Amino acid sequence: QQPVQSPQAVILREGEDAVINCSSSKALYSVHWYRQKHGEAPVFLMILLKGGEQKGHEKISASFNEKKQQSSLYLTASQLSYSGTYFCGTEITGNTGKLIFGQGTTLQVKP
Amino acid sequence: NAGVTQTPKFRVLKTGQSMTLLCAQDMNHEYMYWYRQDPGMGLRLIHYSVGEGTTAKGEVPDGYNVSRLKKQNFLLGLESAAPSQTSVYFCASSYTGFEQFFGPGTRLTVL
Predict the structure, then answer these.
(1) Partner of A16 at 20 to 30 A CA spacing, among A42, A74, A81, B7?
(2) What are the Cα distances from residue B97, in Å, to A27, A85, A99?
(3) How far is CA B77 from the centre of its chain?
(4) Taking Cα atoms as reference points, which of B84, B3, B11 lies closest to residue B44?
(5) Mind listing the pLDDT tens digit for each residue in B35-80?
(6) What's the gap in Å between the CA of B44 and the closest CA on chain A?
(7) A102, A22 in Cβ contact below 8 A?
(8) Interfacial residues of A (vs B; Cβ cutoff 8 Å)
(9) Mean model confidence pLDDT for chain A
């Protein structure tokens, strides 16, 4: 039931792009994306709802393919501050925020 | 505005001891959550609450109990700690179930 994230880890140079994928075997109501820096708490990035609505706070984009139950997070022109571990959280029934998180993707951006 | 706070920040227990972790939020959020995070496992939901006086089981509820007597507080109890409960525990709160705000975490070691 845990969503599968890929890749597990990625190393980039500043300015390069990255895509992180999240795949579920269950029909989803929404997909949530969080970033966690080492030793810190996770921070909300974006939510993608069934039906196409997106809500986010940063200049990071994402997509949600409802037919395939897959979501992708697009990090363009990466900055050093993008380094951290990215988690997708999947919600099957709405209005509770009951999330099942993937195992995480570690992103390292080098100068 | 303190956001989400957790008490204590660190704790060491012996097997069989009991303890309570306190989560407090000052944002008037309806929804609150307890997660545990283990290396390579991502975040796993233990219990959650969608309002004062309500609680529900998450993904890994065994060995834990919770209470939400006041809207601003969510308590996580371990009745008889086991080494398998060594983990970092995060509390989170949310207004709508969408964006979750995480506390700084409690690092628990059970010997």
Answers:
(1) A42
(2) 18, 22, 10
(3) 9
(4) B84
(5) 999 987 789 999 999 999 999 999 999 999 999 999 999 999 999 9
(6) 7
(7) yes
(8) 2, 30, 32, 34, 40-44, 47, 55, 57, 87, 89, 94-104
(9) 91
Joined together, the tokens standing for residue A103 give 């195992």
Please tell me the number of Cα atoms within 13 Å of B25 on its side-chain side: 27
Q: Which two tokens stand for residue A71?
A: 């979501």
Q: Give the amino acid at B12.
A: V
Q: What is the DSSP letter of B85?
A: G
pLDDT for A54: 67
CA of A43 vs chain B CAs: smallest distance (Å): 7
| Contact between B99 and A2 using a beta-carbon 8 Å cutoff | no
**B41 contacts in A (CB within 8 Å)?**
103
Q: Which residues of B touch A44 (CB under 8 A)?
A: 99-101
Closest CA to B79 of B97, B67, B88: B67
Which residues have CB under 8 Å from A21's CB, separation 6+? A5, A6, A70, A71, A72, A73
pLDDT in tens, A60-79: 889 899 889 999 999 988 99
CA distance A80 to chain B (A): 22
Radius of gyration of chain A (CA): 13
Query: Are B105 and A41 within 8 A, CB to CB?
Result: yes
Both structure tokens of B33: 């959550």
